[in-house]
Write a structure and sequence with these properties.
By secondary structure, this protein is an alpha/beta fold. It folds into 3 domains: 2-98, Orthogonal Bundle (Arc Repressor Mutant, subunit A), CATH 1.10.10.10; 100-169 and 268-297, D-Maltodextrin-Binding Protein, domain 2 (3-Layer(aba) Sandwich), CATH 3.40.190.10; 171-252, Periplasmic binding protein-like II (D-Maltodextrin-Binding Protein, domain 2), CATH 3.40.190.10. Helices cover 44% and strands 19% of the residues. It contains 12 helices and 11 strands. The chain has helices spanning 2-9, 15-27, 30-37, 41-55, 71-98, 107-114, 118-124, 177-180, 200-210, 226-234, 248-252, 283-297, and strands spanning 60-63, 66-69, 100-105, 129-134, 149-154, 161-168, 171-174, 194-196, 220-222, 239-243, 269-275. Strands 4-3-5-11-6 form a 5-stranded mixed sheet. The protein has a 4-stranded mixed sheet with strand order 7-10-8-9, with helices on both faces. α2 (15-27) packs across α4 (41-55), α2 (15-27) packs across α5 (71-98) and α3 (30-37) packs across α4.
Length: 300
């Protein structure tokens, strides 16, 4: 630190002039350095002269055949060159660190909502490397990982985090067109083969809201993710509760149909969340604003 203070006190010359000296030494002439830097020979020569004046020593001997380093230049230029290499490497590491974001989200959100947005996102943030990780947790934990932000399903009541609502969760029954042909009313779902991707309480709440007698759930198959349940439903293996936003493309393409109008609102939504201290680079707020806009432009 004392050495740094002393360096500031003697006003270390500008790095650009030092860079010109290094390139001039490599090229062996000011004209060669000028071509490499896309500057005029006079501009390079003036910068070198100013550096020599600031240092109080001559770094080059000007000869007809080109430049030759003085004794002082022989000592100084290699030190500057090494310092510039280290500074360039440090800047590269810093740029990489600030332009890479690790974003965690549920697997089905990743595959059904976020991945289709990626081509457009690359146009909005072309300099940012978005690294996607998946997680089924309902809690936006950041203590035990290196994630910068997360998309989490919940009620948005997470203290000490930046929390921004993306889209509400709305659950409805979906299935293949062939399976739907045998379902004439919500009550007929009682006898269907259920593809369970949510807790039993979700099916019970949907049944109660749809006016279907809520008895013991019929037989079915449980899946750890909605993605697996939707895939099985497309294959005609049964009916499942699905979030309308996540099933939107499959419904649009008629891979799935919604045989009943009733929708279940559990009071949950998907939120974009991140620790406040991780927003200093400015990239997370830009990503946040864009995702909020994308979510708001979709059907509610």
């Amino acid at each position: 630190m004392d050495e740094l203070r002393q360096g500031v006190a003697v006003r270390v010359p500008h790095l650009r002039a030092m860079e010109m000296c290094v390139i001039a030494a490599r090229c062996g002439s000011f004209s060669g350095a000028a071509r490499a830097l896309r500057l005029t020979q006079g501009a390079v020569s003036r910068q070198v002269q100013r550096l020599e004046s600031a240092l109080g020593v001559a770094l080059f001997v000007r000869q007809a055949a080109g430049l030759k380093l003085t004794a002082q230049g022989e000592v100084f230029i290699p030190i500057v060159e090494e310092a510039l290499v280290r500074l360039t490497a440090a800047c590269k590491v810093l740029r990489t660190a600030t332009r890479s974001i690790s974003l965690r989200m549920p697997p089905t959100v990743a595959s059904r909502w976020f991945l289709p947005l990626l081509p457009a996102l690359r146009g909005v943030l072309p300099e940012v490397d978005i690294r996607i990780t998946t997680d089924l947790s309902y809690e936006p934990h950041f203590e035990d990982n290196d994630d910068d932000a997360a998309i989490v399903l919940g009620r948005g009541d997470w203290p000490d985090l930046e929390v921004h609502r993306l889209m509400a969760e709305r659950l409805t029954v979906v299935c293949s067109a062939a399976a739907a042909a045998s379902l004439g009313s919500p009550a007929s779902i009682e006898g269907a083969f259920l593809l369970n991707c949510y807790p039993d309480a979700a099916w019970a709440a949907w049944s109660q809201g749809a006016g279907v007698p809520c008895g013991p759930l019929p037989r079915g198959q449980s899946f750890p993710t909605l993605e697996l349940g939707l895939t099985a439903a497309v294959r005609g293996e049964g009916v499942t509760l699905a979030d309308l936003t996540l099933a939107r493309d499959a419904l649009r393409d008629r891979l799935l149909v919604a045989p009943c109008d009733h929708q279940l609102d559990r009071g949950l939504a998907y939120y974009f969340v991140y620790p406040q201290q991780r927003s200093r680079s400015g990239i997370l707020p830009r990503l946040r604003d864009w995702l909020v806009q994308c979510a708001s432009s979709g059907p509610e």
